[in-house]
Specification:
By secondary structure, the protein is of the alpha+beta class. The chain folds into three domains: about 120 residues, Trna Endonuclease, Chain: A, domain 1 (3-Layer(aba) Sandwich); about 80 residues, Arc Repressor Mutant, subunit A, CATH 1.10.10.10; about 120 residues, no CATH class. About 35% of the residues lie in helices and about 25% in strands. The protein contains eleven helices and 14 strands. A seven-stranded mixed sheet has the order 1-2-3-4-5-6-7. α3 links the parallel β4 and β5. α5 packs across α6, α7 packs across α10 and α10 packs antiparallel against α11. The longest helix has 16 residues. The protein is globular and about 75 Å long. The chain starts with a helix and ends with a helix. About 35% of the residues are buried.
Length: about 325
């Protein structure tokens, strides 16, 4: 997929009159950074080389994370299959070069200025990952992201933790190898190549492909004026989203309640004294992983981050960035 995006976006730039764009190198290991590619742009006998960061999609909520990710990789151009109009605007304001497979592009330097806005998306179907990023595969990815040592555990062990079949685990590992998220070393062990990128891909896919398909239902408190911070959750039940972020950072105030549980909803309903209500402020959602007890009755910070971006209002995005910096970044 990355090579497809690189070729299509580079060809779009090369098609511009007076511009010569070539791919110089792919898959560069530079100090502590893995860089997807390096390209050269020529115009009027002036040549500029750019490192390339490739993503499937770039959305507004990702911009703060991208800016942090590329700060040590300069000069850089972002390439993606799709960059939303708002994200393109945000990148231009930061003077970050970009190009997508539909032909939208921006680059401003002393010798070259490019700005093309087509307001269309590429209709060509790029090769997509069908196993690592489907509903079952995402459960496997979650396990190896929060527990990187699991990458070299037996498939049966990973499958039990992710609640999927051994075959699913094998398919996911093969996809990760093919897409070069992981490599196999000389001692036949797997190691990550780019966990931060894999995490970002997982977050988007989780919110699009897994979370909406989890069993979930809305409720409201049976009593009035309930302070959720005083509620004692039953076993195998955890605060998610803004509730978890409030506990972890004290930065955001949750006005709704999101609760992950491995118990039958009826049992949780009785324990928490809540009743079904389609417009209720409480959402119970199926817990999709098997784990030991979580600290402070909150979900893993990586899942908190994904939850906050599921409803990306400005306050949630700010809280997500705090969660990332405080709890996630050093784990990747």
């Amino acid at each position: 997929m990355r090579n497809d995006i690189l070729k299509i976006a580079t060809d779009k730039i090369d098609d511009l009159i007076g511009i010569n764009c070539k791919i110089i190198e792919k898959e560069i290991n530079r100090k502590d950074n893995f860089i997807d590619a390096k390209i050269s742009l020529e115009h009027n006998n002036e040549k500029i080389n750019y490192f390339v960061e490739i993503m499937k999609k770039i959305l507004p909520e990702q911009i703060p994370r991208i800016l942090q990710q590329i700060q040590d990789v300069q000069p850089v151009i972002l390439m993606a299959d799709y960059i939303s109009p708002k994200a393109r605007e945000m990148l231009r304001l930061k003077n970050i070069p970009y190009a997508d497979t539909a032909g939208n592009m921006y680059l401003s330097s002393l010798s070259i200025y490019i700005y093309v806005q087509t307001d269309r998306t590429n209709r060509q179907k790029l090769k997509t990952k069908t196993r690592a990023f489907n509903k079952a595969g995402l459960k496997v990815l979650f396990q190896i992201l929060i527990n990187p040592e699991y990458l070299n555990k037996p498939y049966r062990f990973i499958g039990e933790k992710a609640r999927v079949t051994i075959a699913t685990v094998g398919n996911v590992i093969q996809d990760l190898l093919r897409e070069k998220y992981i490599v196999q070393t000389n001692n036949k062990k797997y190691q990550f190549v780019d966990r931060p990128r894999l995490f970002e891909e997982w977050v988007r896919a989780y919110n699009n492909a897994l979370r909406p398909k989890l069993n979930q239902k809305r409720y409201k408190w049976l009593e009035k004026n309930v302070n959720w911070r005083n509620i004692e959750l039953p076993k195998d039940t955890y605060w998610g989203s803004a509730n978890a972020a409030e506990i972890a950072t004290e930065y955001i105030i949750a006005d709704q309640a999101l609760i992950y549980t491995g118990l039958p909803f009826q049992e949780v309903m009785k324990d928490l004294k809540i009743i079904p209500d389609e417009d209720g402020e409480i959402k119970l959602i199926e817990k999709f992983w098997k784990n030991e007890e979580e600290a402070n009755n909150v979900i893993n910070p990586m899942l908190i981050y994904a939850d906050l971006l599921y409803d990306p209002n400005p306050r949630h995005i700010e809280a997500a960035n705090k969660i990332y910096k405080q709890y996630v970044q050093d784990k990747l």
